[in-house]
């Protein structure tokens, strides 16, 4: 896909630039089976030509339903799997072909927070060792004493007690474990954090604590985030920019406020319409029909066409590319380009405000 | 008389360290045709309450006290055989994961026909007709073809539709839905919620909707019960509980939900996390996290008291003052 690169309004060069990123997974039967039983070669295009710029000190969020490729993007950027095409530039250096952890001076500056705080901490290690592992890997502390002091400082920074370093992960609740993951991620003083659904395994009251902590960290440490979530309300709280993904492609990238106030792509509108409304109880809405199609065999042309009310013959024939519109908005949709998209839906914000005041 | 009356329900788990109380003295009613939401964080006892009502507590869990009455008749002390006759016929169940609630070795049609014929006197041909009717009812395209397919041939959302058809096909008057949309994508979630609401309304069936998602509650339920550490913190009409919560826990919970619209600098957060069942504090279970805590909260356990249109278990409403 030859999408026009997204231009984000920013004076300096973006910290992370992704160009034409692709990841295809082979899904075919083994060669011999294909030979004997027939059957085509099949690939899943998990990420299919993605362009992103993340400005320094800001948050770009990727949203989309399961299977849209958002977690694959995170893994590609972190070097946990290698791209089938395209490039990833971190602070100007191409890291897309480098193996995981290489080059060390760049990988130290980017870290990741995972979704499941139960699976991402080694249950046999003490918390202090878990947090110190990146420090040891990158040789950041001269002595064991210095390392322990640093671990204690990190534990207190994320709202835990320095004494907690001697405990094991099972002694902590989900929210506290996620704080440990965060302490580990910021131990190497990174500039860039990839957060893959960091709160979706947590209860709402704990989610609020973690989201608040992440916003504070961003202000204090000047971090740049790539934030991945399926929850648009969470994304609204965290992001400067929002990218909406559908079946491996970006369908819209906009400044967060603009995306909610003035969504362009029909899929973005669908997603916004699925946010349950806490104010209008017992509202009857017309839910969007259909489900995400099988990624092995996506519809030709625009992937969203079968569910789209605005689809026409051109949408069937030709895959749309991301185009830049006013206000930093980019969308890949023929209907938006031709001005066929109907009146934008607006989100009622006044009711939300009055409720917050009441609480 | 209410369709379902739950009175001082207690669910216990005997362990080596003593008996844990997962649901502690919970009372509520469900009226004919009403949707009651039960909301709470993980471990609050909301699923246990639903499982106790439908008689599906996993051993060693057991009902340790109180009564559950359906149409005035006690159902908490029935034998497993008697309970099996009630389940499906009078109380239907919908669970979180549609893949584990369907048998992968039988076609969807076979499972529907079996359920219908177990509970209703009907010939196989009539039952099949009815099953296909139900598949159409829950919005499955080409129901007569889908009737002969296996669960793996359905997508997640379609499977949950089949589960809803299974729960409703013997026309029960009460449905227990435990996190029915949690395993689904957001766009499919909205479809399933709309479907559940419509079939309940059309059949005048009541439902207990157990979920951690306040948005689902806001859109679906008539009344909502908020649980904390195995106890009822607050119960009342949805609009009231969500917009003018009486209990400090509900207020904190509502404030901690991120919303669409102008974003605040910070979300309201409740410090700490819910206590484990092994160390529930004395007095009010919420007292270590409560912003309005006072001395009596550590000593006296609050009872549910009528507040406005609902009821809340909080000493602020018991005339106990600082």
**How many separate structural domains of chain B?**
1
Most extensive protein-chain contact, per-chain counts: A-B, 56 and 55 residues
Order of helices and strands of chain B: EEEHEEHEHHHHEHEHEEHHEE
Structural class of chain A: alpha/beta
Low-confidence stretches of chain A: 1-10, 344-359
Distance between the termini of chain A: 48 Å
Structure description:
- The complex is a heterodimer of chains A (359) and B (322).
- Helices cover 32% and strands 19% of the residues of chain A.
- With 359 residues, chain A is an alpha/beta fold.
- In chain A, the strands form two sheets. Chain A has an eight-stranded mixed beta sheet with strand order 6-7-8-3-9-10-12-11, sandwiched between helices. A four-stranded antiparallel beta sheet of chain A has the order 2-1-4-5, with helices on one face.
- Chain B has 322 residues and is α/β, with parallel strands linked by helices.
- Chain B has a single domain (4-90, 172-317), classed as P-loop containing nucleotide triphosphate hydrolases (Rossmann fold, 3-Layer(aba) Sandwich).
- In chain B, the strands form two sheets. Chain B has an eight-stranded mixed beta sheet with strand order 6-7-8-3-9-10-12-11, sandwiched between helices. Chain B has a four-stranded antiparallel beta sheet with strand order 2-1-4-5.
- In chain B, β11 (305-307) and β12 form a beta hairpin.
- At the A-B interface, α6, α7, α8, α10 and α13 of A face α6, α7, α8, α9 and α10 of B.
Structure at a glance:
The complex is a heterodimer of chains A (359) and B (322). Helices cover 32% and strands 19% of the residues of chain A. By secondary structure, chain A is an alpha/beta fold.
Tags for this entry?
heterodimer, A: 359 residues, alpha/beta, 8-stranded mixed β-sheet, 4-stranded antiparallel β-sheet, 13 helices, 12 strands, 19% strand, globular, disordered N terminus, disordered C terminus, B: 322 residues, Rossmann fold, 23% strand, transport (chain B), cell membrane (chain B), ABC_Ni/Peptide_Import (chain B)
């Amino acid at each position: 896909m030859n999408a026009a690169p997204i231009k984000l309004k920013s004076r300096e060069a973006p910290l992370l630039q992704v160009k034409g990123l692709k990841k295809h997974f082979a899904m075919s039967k083994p060669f011999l089976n294909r030979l004997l039983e027939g059957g085509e070669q099949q690939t899943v295009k998990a990420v299919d030509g993605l362009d992103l710029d993340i400005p320094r000190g800001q948050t770009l969020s990727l949203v989309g339903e399961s299977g849209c490729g958002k977690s694959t993007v995170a893994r590609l950027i972190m070097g946990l799997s290698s791209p089938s095409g395209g490039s990833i530039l971190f602070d100007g250096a191409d890291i897309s072909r480098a193996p995981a952890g290489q080059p060390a001076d760049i990988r130290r500056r980017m870290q990741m927070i995972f979704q499941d705080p139960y699976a991402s901490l080694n249950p046999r290690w003490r918390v202090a060792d878990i947090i110190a592992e990146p420090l040891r890997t990158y040789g950041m502390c001269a002595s064991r004493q210095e390392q322990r002091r640093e671990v204690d400082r990190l534990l207190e920074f994320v709202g835990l007690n320095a004494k907690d370093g001697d405990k094991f992960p099972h002694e902590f609740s989900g929210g506290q474990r996620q704080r440990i993951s965060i302490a580990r991620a910021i131990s190497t003083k990174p500039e860039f954090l990839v957060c893959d659904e960091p709160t979706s395994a947590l209860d709402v009251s704990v989610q609020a604590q973690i989201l608040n902590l992440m916003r504070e960290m961003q202000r204090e440490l000047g971090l740049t985030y790539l934030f991945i979530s399926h929850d648009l309300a969470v994304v609204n709280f965290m992001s400067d920019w929002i990218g909406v993904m559908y079946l491996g492609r970006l369908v819209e990238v906009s400044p967060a406020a603009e995306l909610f106030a003035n969504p362009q792509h029909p899929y973005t509108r669908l997603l916004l319409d699925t946010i349950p409304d806490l104010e209008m109880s017992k509202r009857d809405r017309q839910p969007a029909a259909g489900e995400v199609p099988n990624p092995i065999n996506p519809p030709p042309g625009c992937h969203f066409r079968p569910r789209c009310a605005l689809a026409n013959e051109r949408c069937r024939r030709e895959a749309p590319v991301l185009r830049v519109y006013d206000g930093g908005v980019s969308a890949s949709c023929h209907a938006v380009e031709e001005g066929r998209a109907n009146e934008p839906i607006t989100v009622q914000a006044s009711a939300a405000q009055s409720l917050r005041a009441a609480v | 008389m209410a369709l379902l009356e739950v009175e001082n329900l207690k669910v216990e788990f005997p362990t080596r360290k003593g008996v844990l109380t997962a649901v502690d003295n919970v009372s509520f009613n469900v009226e004919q045709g009403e949707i009651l939401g039960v909301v709470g964080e993980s471990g609050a006892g909301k699923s246990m309450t639903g499982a106790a009502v439908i008689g599906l507590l996993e051993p060693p869990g057991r009902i340790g006290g109180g009564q559950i009455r359906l149409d005035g008749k006690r159902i908490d002390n029935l034998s497993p055989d008697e309970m099996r006759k009630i389940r499906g016929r009078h109380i239907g169940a919908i669970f979180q994961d549609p893949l584990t609630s369907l048998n992968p070795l039988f076609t969807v049609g076979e499972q529907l026909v079996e359920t219908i014929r177990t509970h209703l006197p009907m010939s196989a041909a009539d039952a099949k007709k009815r099953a296909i009717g139900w598949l159409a009812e829950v919005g499955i395209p080409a129901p007569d073809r889908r009737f002969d397919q296996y669960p793996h041939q359905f997508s997640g959302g379609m499977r949950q539709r089949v589960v809803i058809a299974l729960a409703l096909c013997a026309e029960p008057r009460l449905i227990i839905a435990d996190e029915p949309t949690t395993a689904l994508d957001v766009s499919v979630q909205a479809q399933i919620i709309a479907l559940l609401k419509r079939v309940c309304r059309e059949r005048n069936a009541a439902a207990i909707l157990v979920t951690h998602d306040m948005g689902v509650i806001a859109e679906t339920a008539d009344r909502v019960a908020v649980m904390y550490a195995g106890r009822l913190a607050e119960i009342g009409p949805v609009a009231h509980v969500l917009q003018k919560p009486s209990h400090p826990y509900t207020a904190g919970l509502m404030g901690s939900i991120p919303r669409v619209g102008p974003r605040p600098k910070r979300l309201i957060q409740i410090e700490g996390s819910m206590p484990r069942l092994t160390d529930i504090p004395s007095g009010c279970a919420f007292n270590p996290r409560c912003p309005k805590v006072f001395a009596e909260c550590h000593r006296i356990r609050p009872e549910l008291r009528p507040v406005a249109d609902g009821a809340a278990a909080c000493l602020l409403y018991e005339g106990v003052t600082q």
